[in-house]
Amino acid sequence: MPPSWPIDFRTALLRATLYILFIGGIAQGAYLEALYLPSVRYTELGFTELTQTFILISELLSNSVYGRSGGSPV
Fold first, then answer.
1. DSSP string for residues in 34-56
2. Do residues 41 and 34 make contact, with C-beta atoms less than 8 angstroms apart?
3. pLDDT digit string, tens, across residues 8-24
4. Could you give the CA distance from residue 30 to residue 27 in angstroms, rounded to a whole number?
5. pTM (2 decimals)?
6. Sequence ranges of the domains in the chain
7. What average pLDDT does the segment 34-61 reach?
8. What b/e readout covers 10-44, taking b as 16+ CB neighbours within 10 angstroms?
9. Residues 6+ apart with CB under 8 A from 68
10. What kind and span of H or E run contains 11?
11. Under a CB-based contact definition with an 8 Å cutoff, are residues 33 and 40 in contact?
């Protein structure tokens, strides 16, 4: 059910800024891993794989808490 009030501009701007910083941090982490950590570059122990796992787990927990199903049905 949608909320009964519209999202305030400040709230939307803050949320968008935090999302951009979060995505930029993930991209920077993947870049630094590729540049300076050749021993774990894109392995199961690297930043990229651990970040993907963390995001997947947090999305699954969020969907189970809020009762939403993400994505399109197969």
1. HHH-TTSTTSTTSHHHHHHHHHH
2. yes
3. 899 999 999 999 999 99
4. 5
5. 0.68
6. 15-61
7. 88
8. eeeeeeeeeeeeeeeebeeebeebeeeeeeeeeee
9. 62
10. helix 9-36
11. yes
Which residue shows structure tokens 């049905």? 73
d(CA 7, CA 67): 22
For the record, the structure tokens of 49 come out as 């794989």
- Does residue 44 contact residue 33 with C-beta atoms inside 8 Å? no
Q: Give me the amino acid identity at 63.
A: N
69 in the Ramachandran plot: left (φ > 0), alpha (ψ -120 to 50) or beta? beta
